[in-house]
Every structure is written in C-alpha cells, then in structure tokens.
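Exam revision sheet. Question 4 asks you to relate a sequence to its structure. Input first:
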Amino acid sequence: MEKGIAVTGMGIISSIGKNLEENYISLISGKNGLSFSEILETKHTHLPVGEIKISNLELLDSLKLNSSKPITRASLLGIVAVKEAILNADLHETQLGTCGFISGTSVGGIDATEKYYKNFQDGDYTEFIKAQHPGFTSKQIANYFEIKGQVSTISTACSSAANSIMLGARLIRSGKLKRVIVGGTDCLTKFTLNGFNSLMILSEKPNKAFDEDRNGLNLGEGAAYLVLEADDVLGAKQVLGRVSGYGNANDAFHQTASSPEGEGAYMAMNKALRTAKLNPRDIDFIHAHGTATRNNDLSESVAMNRVFKDSLPDFSSTKGFTGHTLAAAGGLQAVLNLLMLKNQQIYPTLNFQNKMEESGLIPITDLKHKRLSHILSNSFGFGGNCTSLIFSSNEK
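Answer key, structure tokens:
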C-alpha cells in the first residue's frame, strides 16, 4: 500500500458536540443531536435537524470577534473547528503563515444573504450580500488565522469536504505544499431546508439509513477540518492516521439522483483503492454516505456490492447522529474515521430495523470493537460528484 499523507491534527463541531471530546462521548453512548429548529428561523419546525444550539452571538463572543463586522455562521463554525485542529496539531503562528487552506462549503454565507437581501437598498449590507459566494466563507476563516499560503474553496455539494481533503493530499504528495488545513463547513439555512423539502426527501422522523422503511434525510450543520503534513516536516510529531487513498468520479446521471447501478460511487471507490494500492479485502470498514433517502442508499448498496462482491466488510452511516451536514459531511466523517482508528471502534447506524429487500445488507447497529487498519469513506454529491477516501493507521 501507499504510505499516505500524515494527519497531525483534527477539529470538529456538530450537533453532538462542540469539540472532539464531546463528539466522541456522544458517539460511544449512542446519543444523537437531532432536534427541531430554534436558531434557524423557519416555518418548518416539524422537521428534525442537526442544529448546533449555540447562537452566532455566542460564537462571536467565544472567538473574541467584533459583532459589527460581517461574518457568517458557516465561517464561525469553521473557525471553531480549525482552531481545535491547529491546537491538536500543535501548529505555530510561523507555520500557519506558509500553510495552505482548502475548505469545502455548499451554502457559504447564504444565511446572511437570506437575512439582509430584502433590506439591501436601505443600508450598507453589501458585504452580507457578497457572503453568498462560497469563497467568502473560506476567506474569513483564513483571515482569522492569518493563513498566507494557498487558500482555495471547493463547492461540489455533499462531496466538497472530501474533495478538499483529496486536493490537500495531492498537493502535499506533489511537493506543492508541506502543510495544509482541509475540511468543510456548512450551516443550516432556509435555502437548503426549503430546497430539500421541495425535493420531498426530508424525513419528519430521525433518519433510518439503509432501512427498508427509510423515507428521507435530516439536514444538519457543522464543521470539521484536518491538518495534513508532509513527512519531511513531521519531526517527532504524533501522526493520527494517514490519507492513503482517494478517488473522484462523476456518473452524470441526474442533477440530484444517483444512478441505479451506483456507477459514480463504484468508480470512486475503485479509484481510491488503486491510489492506495490496496485490494478490496484490505478494507476493514466502510463509512457509508448513507443519507437514508430511497435512491441514495440503494445506489450506494449496489456500488458496494459491485466493488466488494462476496467480501463486503462492516459498514455504517453516522448521519443518524449529526444529520446530513452537506458540504461538511466528508470532513465530519474524516474526523470520525480517525477516532475509530485511534480507539479501534466502529460507530453504529442509528434507528436501523429492517434490511432493504433489494440488497439484504445490514449495517453495524451497535458500537463495535474491531481491529481497524483501513477505512473507506464515501461522500456523494448532487450532480453525480462522488468521492471516496481511504484513511489508514500509521502502523509500519
């Protein structure tokens, strides 16, 4: 196998915790973060969401930021997660100056645009209108930490954070960067809640990934980032794991649906295995995209069976804990993958009861202790953009 790119730090905020420790406690205790909207102003208060119960003002205060300056919720959540990742990696200010930053987001600062666009001509709201551009969020996060290296934004729907991790790994592998912070952030907005509701794929109950009776997803919000470093700058630093494989593909089947054959997912998983120089039998666990929609779970099941045939490893979806955090989902999964490698545990699929008739697949439904060396992590986005990553332990 390929040695892979070293992960030296990670940070996360989600509806199940505002840091690594709180998220871990929720995961091992089976505590989900689904509730009803309190911070997001919406008429759809009957729809469960993975909302972080911290207001923007509270986030501003904790980060010592001036509330008079325009900043979006996605940026605030991103700053919280990046801050923990930097501390976790023990990065210094001088190292941040040359560090790269690649962030995935889908909604960017549209929460601010939604709030101010009706009054745009009545006041100085220009910055908040510009906040809708995804790059605005990345720039705010990078400016907070005074990151002077390459700053990029990836917006490929629900595969955004996974693609940012892939790009960061490729930049280090090619020698373009020595250090890069990668991941993603998204917050709940009226745009996404109304949009997914119009597609009729939101559930009024907690989601049931890979269940025969699944009837839709629950949206969530959150941010998660990793610090990737080249081996020649590691020194004696602890390595949390490695990004050993990655693959991206697009099946170009439909704007919002996955192909029945799971073509994009199939190609992405195979590419990740080839990049890592691993065989399907080397994978110990699959962290599935698992949104709990009728289309996605069946398509992903077909793709997994195509890749692994009769040797499908344990798999589960953790969106029952956090909801689907859209562009941030691949980042959240990445942090959870590293926690699983560290603790040799698999986190369960919540709410599963009945296997799908078409596939017969049964995910892990209870916390499981298992020897883990390689985890395959899937993130599939609208437009058919499919990305698979492989996270490996740092054992020689």
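Marking note for examiners. The longest helix spans residues 73-89.
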